[in-house]
């Protein structure tokens, strides 16, 4: 079992930056792929970024490539999402998620992620 708690969301102007964190506990964090997803009002939850168990592989949605960076610190059981050059269309609730199969590279496959945090709101004003 994995428990996930996101933090770092808030209100920022367009062009600004935020760093989201996701603290994990309850299982062997360092063996799982981790991902960030987001959901805007009235829209489906969508993939943002993912990272494999040791940080050696990453994947990004086209909409955030070059602006967002995913990283993990397995010693601290923490996942990060650095968001730069934020746009109003990035406004959403951001969720941290964990795979359940150790050492599998889940990439952006939403059905592979079975553990979810409660989400943190990111609002980008124009």
Fold blueprint:
Layout: E1 3-7, E2 10-13, E3 18-25, E4 34-39, E5 46-51, E6 58-60, E7 68-73, E8 78-83, E9 92-99, E10 113-116, E11 120-125
Parallel strand pairs: 2-11
Antiparallel strand pairs: 1-3, 3-8, 4-5, 4-9, 5-6, 7-8, 9-10, 9-11
Q: Could you explain the architecture of this structure?
A:
The chain has 126 residues and is mostly beta strands. Helices cover 0% and strands 49% of the residues. The chain has no helices and eleven strands. The strands form two sheets. Strands 2, 4, 5, 6, 9, 10 and 11 form a seven-stranded mixed sheet that branches. Strand 7 and strand 8 form a beta hairpin. The chain is globular, with a radius of gyration of 13 Å. The N and C termini lie far apart (40 Å).
Q: Which terms summarize this structure?
A:
single chain, 126 residues, mainly beta, seven-stranded mixed sheet, four-stranded antiparallel sheet, 0% helix
SS field, number of helical segments: 0
Shape field: globular
Major β-sheet profile: 7 strands, mixed
- The rounded distance between the terminal residues' Cα atoms is 40 Å
Rg result = 13 Å
In total, the number of strands is 11
Oligomer: single chain
């Amino acid at each position: 079992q994995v428990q996930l708690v996101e933090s770092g969301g808030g209100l920022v102007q367009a062009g600004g930056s935020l760093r989201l964190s996701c603290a994990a506990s309850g299982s062997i964090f360092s063996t799982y792929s981790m991902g960030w997803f987001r959901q805007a009002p009235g829209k489906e939850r969508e993939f943002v970024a993912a990272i494999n168990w040791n940080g050696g592989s990453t994947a990004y949605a086209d909409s955030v490539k070059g602006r967002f960076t995913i990283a993990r610190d397995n010693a601290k059981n923490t996942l990060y999402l650095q968001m730069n050059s934020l746009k109003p269309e990035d406004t959403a609730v951001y969720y941290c998620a964990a795979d359940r199969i150790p050492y599998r590279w889940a990439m952006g496959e939403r059905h592979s992620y079975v553990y979810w945090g409660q989400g943190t709101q990111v609002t980008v004003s124009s």
